[in-house]
Amino acid sequence: MTPAAYLALARDAVIVIALAAVLYLVYRSGEDRVRSKDFQGLQDQMKRQGDVLAGWHEESTHANTKLAEDVGKINAAARAPHQPVWLCDGKAPGKPPVLSKAPSETRNSDPSGGGTVGGSRRDIQPQLTAFKQKWETILAECRAEDASWPQ
């Protein structure tokens, strides 16, 4: 054999070995291989996610407990007796005005005088209490929702 034949044979052998290596690598890259270190990594990741989920659950439970406590306090405050808040509206018949108008302002007006007068009174404390109760409850729910999000 001539040296050229040896070189051609060596070249063909290198091409066949390279082609076999490429085919082997393509075959191996398509395999589903699971190793023990892959399982260990997956178990570690699941433990971390479980810890995060447990923390979120704890925060949510604490927020709901705090919400129930706050709503209980709000409702108890609404049921407690309060001093009346009087709203005077209208002019009381037959009562003199507290302040009379200046003489220049009384020409074309009511001859009985003007200014601040007494009138019928009504207690608006129930409406104020209902308003406070409604909005304090809404604010407590917002605080609870904010506290239940992961920190």
N-to-C series of helices and strands: HHEEH
- What would the average pLDDT be, to the nearest integer? 83
Q: What structural class do you assign from the helix and strand content?
A: mainly alpha
Largest sheet: 2 strands, antiparallel
Share of β-strand residues:
5-15%
| Strand segment count | 2
Output the strand order for the largest sheet. Answer: 1-2
General form: rod-shaped
| Helix amount | 55-70%
Output the radius of gyration: 43 Å
Give a description of the structure.
The protein has 151 residues and is mainly alpha-helical. Helices cover 63% and strands 5% of the residues. It is built from 3 helices and 2 strands; from the N terminus they run H-H-E-E-H. It has a two-stranded antiparallel sheet. Helix 2 runs antiparallel to helix 3. It is rod-shaped. It starts with a helix and ends with a helix. About 6% of the residues have low confidence.
